[in-house]
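Researcher: Good morning. I'm working through a list of sequences from a screen, and I'd like to move beyond sequence-only analysis. For each chain I'm collecting a predicted structure so we can compare shapes side by side. This is the next one on the list. No need for commentary yet; just the structure.
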Amino acid sequence: MAYILRVIGEMFPNAHCELNHRNPFELTIAVLLSAQCTDETVNKVTADLFKKYETPADYLSVPLDELEQDIRRIGLYRNKASHIQKLCRMLLDEFGGEIPHRHEDLTKLPGVGRKTANVVVSNAFGVPAIAVDTHVERVSKRLGIAKVDDNVLEVEKKLMKLVPRELWTDTHHRLIFFGRYHCKAQNPQCPVCPLLDLCKEGRQRMKMNADRKAKAN
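Model: Good morning. Structure tokens for this chain:
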């Protein structure tokens, strides 16, 4: 694992959260919106959204269908709009209008699961955490850190056990960058991957490509 951490650290030393935000509240909204949606699309939507709505009360001051239209380009926008308004109501009723710092309080918020809570505590409050999104899960399984049939919680627990706690947040970001820009779901860059020797799937893919070329010739 130390070798993997060193390699991805050298490849993506400046990996960071790519969701645009100015405070913990905006980060929470952005991560909620990012489920099954690219960060790029979320940033396009929140560029206007965060100008119109700055506080939890702002999101509650409009009809639900208006908020739905404001985030219409986001997948599952109706459900997410409903979660946002319910989340904002809970923030005002139970947390003084502020995003709570504690992980267990964050996961009480509508639309906020373990992954979102991990992103918020690590990026907004500096608490080490590893959030397992599709990129982290895919890379972890391809590199043999986790088993193919592990669920996201099992992947998270294995990473937490193998990675020093002080590196959890950086590792989370670097695994995302590695998965997003190098070890992609489709067309991963296996021929130039420095971790190919650790990737059974990648070696199989390279062999299949070589066999196809041999047959073609």
